[in-house]
Design goal:
By secondary structure, the protein is mainly α. The chain is built from 12 helices and 5 strands. The protein folds into 2 domains: 88 residues, no CATH class; 122 residues, Hypothetical protein, domain 2 (Endonuclease III, domain 1), CATH 1.10.340. This is HhH-GPD domain-containing protein.
């Protein structure tokens, strides 16, 4: 069970201080036989005007974005991670969603193009490997075949082995649910990072990717921006101070996740020029 974020004052060095406000997202039962509608960044925001006529963006919870560049970033490129895959609940801390995000971090942190990594994680989710029971029952050969189809050829054998090891670890140590990590670490980002380092195939780069993409549902990790994306933030003129960016999104974990996703998109696709003054 995912709890509300901790009141612990410890900080995660590369991400900025954790908050003591808002509640973690709660798991809601999915309606039977209802196809998931893909989450888009525009779904949670709407435009209006301040009394002085300056446009702002209001979120579902009343928070607002007054910085036009950040507003544009989130509007154009701020999709929630894996929202364009077959993942059922990218906005909820279900065991499937957290495992999918961890597999995404593992695959994306290898020395492979982001396009191939994205294709591979899409196929991994289509194969159902984000569901622990499916991943456990899969054979090494089956996992290798899925990775090969995604173009993940150079690391396929090693990664197929690590995926099997991951399934066993989740069952043995985390009671079948990666959300257990939050309980074991008291939702302290530094302790979460240390715990994740026990997972084979997940180094610092992979953990940064995971923090970036899971902070909207593991809200104790917000605010976080991958250090590589902070350079992009500085280059396009919104600054690289995580706490300042956190305030710009009204300390909303979902919007922070969308901003981090947008900055990653700019960095990987070389779209920085679109936002430079």
């Amino acid at each position: 069970m995912v709890t509300t974020r901790s009141q612990n004052k410890n900080t995660e060095p590369s991400s900025g201080e954790k908050r003591s406000h808002s509640k973690a997202a709660t798991v809601q039962a999915q309606e039977p036989e209802t196809k998931h509608q893909k989450t888009k960044s525009s779904d949670s925001i709407k435009s209006n005007e301040n009394e002085d006529g300056k446009e702002k963006v209001q979120h579902h919870d009343g928070a607002s974005l007054s910085n036009p560049k950040i507003r544009q970033l989130i509007s154009q490129y701020g999709e929630l991670p894996l929202s364009q895959t077959d993942l059922s609940d990218p906005d909820k801390p279900t065991p499937d969603t957290v495992l999918a995000l961890l597999l995404n971090a593992m695959l994306s942190s290898s020395r492979i193009s982001h396009a191939l990594a994205a294709k591979t994680i899409d196929l991994v989710i289509k194969a159902g490997y984000h569901k622990l029971d499916v991943l456990k029952k899969s054979t090494w050969e089956e996992r290798t075949e899925v990775l090969t189809q995604g173009g993940y050829t150079h690391y396929r054998e090693k990664t197929a082995t690590m995926m099997g090891d991951l399934a066993q670890l989740i069952e043995d140590k985390y009671e079948g649910d990666l959300n257990t990590i939050l309980q074991l670490t008291s939702e302290d980002p530094a302790k979460v990072r240390a715990e994740l380092k026990n997972i084979k195939g997940l180094g610092d780069v992979g953990i940064n990717i995971f923090f970036d993409t899971v902070q909207h549902i593991w809200t104790c990790l917000a605010p976080f921006v991958d250090p590589r994306s902070l350079k992009t933030a500085r280059e396009i003129g919104i600054g690289d101070d995580v706490q300042v960016l956190w305030k710009e999104v009204s300390e909303d974990p979902e919007q922070m996740c969308r901003l981090a996703a947008a900055l990653t998109k700019l960095r990987l696709d070389g779209k920085e020029k679109e936002f430079k003054d």
